[in-house]
Amino acid sequence: MNEQLNNVDKPQRKRFADRQFKAAARFIVRYRRGLALLLLIACVGGLYFARNINLDNSLELWFLEDDPTLAAYREFKAKNGNDEIILAMIDCRRDGMFSPAMLSAVYKASKAIEDDTDNFRRVLSVGLSPHIGLQNDELIIEDLMSGPVETEADAALIRERFMDDPFKRMILQDASSTWAIIIAEPVATPDMDTRRPLIIESVRKKLAGFEYRLAGMGVMYDELNRLSILDGGVFNAVAYAVIAILIFGLYRSWAFLFMALGAMLFSGMSFLGFYGLFDQNFNMVTIVLPTLMMILSVSDVAYVYNNYCFNSDRIRKNREEGLVHVFNEVLSPCLFTSLTNTCGFFALTASSLSVLRTFGWFAGFASMAEYVVSMIVSVYILGRVELKEEIQIKRPMEPQINWIVKQVPVYYRQILVFFALAAVLGVYGITQLNVDTYSMGFLHEKNPIRVDSDKVEAVYGNYLPLEVRLMTGKRGGILSVDF
């Protein structure tokens, strides 16, 4: 009697929202072609908004929103356009800084930069700087140089006047007078991120023929933007290629390969469209979001394909009902995984840092969007596969994994001790972390811009300007004697 009762199949326990997931599975299977077409239209159409995406690695990314320094910085930019200067340090070791040839060359280069009024507001150098002096007991103000230098006597006079001015000695040369300094201030423009590369290229063209080093915040931002594009493209391409090679190499399944590639492609396209729709810019942090979305989509596709293989016999008998069964099994756990990922990323939105908040919001969106994209791509591709025989399930590294699992009960004490030690080391490592948001540190030590910056700091000193605004409190206050 007991044996008979034990052999009776117990009714299967219903899962949460089982009816809804089953209806959703039937819906996506029945309308898989239409859903795939809508996905294609949405992704391709969304690329129109991807045009709005630019690169922005500016200083503001690393400030807290309520930081008074950031408020002052934004106020300064609102009034003055930008706080960037481009510093060119010219090597004068061969002929000397005050030789007629070098003075003439520096003057011509400085004048060419100054004449480019579309890009530059003012230029300061030994070739373009004022001279204030006395002549017959009269105060005179004139240009230190009015043109190219022809004779040694003229060069000696310029050197004498230059050395008499402590400001020029400190700002427009290094301590040994072997490097001449040109300081160029770009024009104030709201589209600085777009024009910055053209402005820097304009300086480089006018310095052609010199041995020089170029530095400045704008130069650093431009290099970070360039590398963000380059590294982002390389990172996405490498991730795409590696995932494709591993999937086909381990599973030898064209269906699984096309499911993964399709999910990654459409996930990336949908994210770019959504990101551009909100006029967002990529930076060193958010540039990884398309790749993150691609990687997340592969985990869902793998789970779908694994369930498909287990139910291949059911699908061969009735493809439509078999696919409904497969997606009824996978929709719920995959949604749970996506929701937990989304909640984790949304936690970042509590940060005061703008860059982390943006990352959290859009990474959360990516987690949910890849779930939808992965299901649509998977059901469409699997719906086109004709199964003629039962699929042989391949589990790469199954013997090794099984061996590890069998060792856990045997050596569980040693394993617990190992992880406890690892946790202690992890806590110690956390105490050794330092916060460093100096943007130049993001560049490799051998990066040309980093090399130039380090050279300028070694020879000339710290070159980033410190702007100090003195407020008079009344109109025309700077003209008052007391001020």
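Next protein, fold it too.
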Amino acid sequence: MEVDPWWKAEACATEVLGQLKIASLPVDPFRIAATKDILCEEKTSLEEGISGCLMRVGDVFGIIYSGRFQSHGYRKFTVGHELGHYFLEGHVDHLFRDGKSAHVSASGFVSDDRYEREADAFAAALLMPKELFSKASSQFRIGMNSVVALASLCEMSLTSTAIRYARLSRDPVAVVLSAEQRVLFSVMSPVFRAYRGLTWLKKGMGVPQGTPTFSFGLDAMNIAQARSIDGVSSLADWFDGPDCELTEEVIGLGSYGRVLTVLSTESLPEPEENVSRSDGRTDDEAEYLLPSERFFRKTRP
């Protein structure tokens, strides 16, 4: 059975919610901060790319969050992230070592730092509690429809909601965030991750040509004006897998300059030991190729 690498953050957030007797959506991180006498203040002067800051003077803490972002959900997540640094074991000692009085956090869910990723996981679990989120999710159709509805219910951003949705979904779902036709990150649902023979998307990989996401990204106005499109692609296009059709739903994230893609299917084909490819190779042979080589050899004439 797969073990969630962020289970400690999930457990910590669940404990905080239980102590405060919070059992409904939406969750208010500002109220949670107030219970610990943590002052939250918006600042427009934070540098670009910085979402928030946790400050400490003795035993007194404060949170500053950037006013650059218009999304209320983004501000909520930023405060939740900083609360993660406050509540998670070892974070305060690590972040404020050597007499430091402030710790800044970068925006965008793309940090590779363990402490930042733990704080992200805490914020997601705090603001979109697993039990409440999953129960609500079951009421909506698979895909972007669920993400949009849940984002409204939880008062969260589409990006943070999509990540949580993919991680908790029992359906074959994957979420991809991209910018300038490059993958920033991807999240796959447990059933997707368990499926054999897929090449997982890596940060910096190109968005596959010929997919709705690639076509969408060719026009900057699609992103700036938060347009959306629906289309179809396949496991072969995105994950170098079998030719199984995927529903591909794409939306531009406006001033953030990014593209959010939700890939889904009602079911996955039964995996085979060696899946035939258009280039005549088998899965076993393809395992020895770099992802870029696999894509090139799969799509060339």
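About the second fold: Confidence is low (pLDDT under 50) at residues 273-301.
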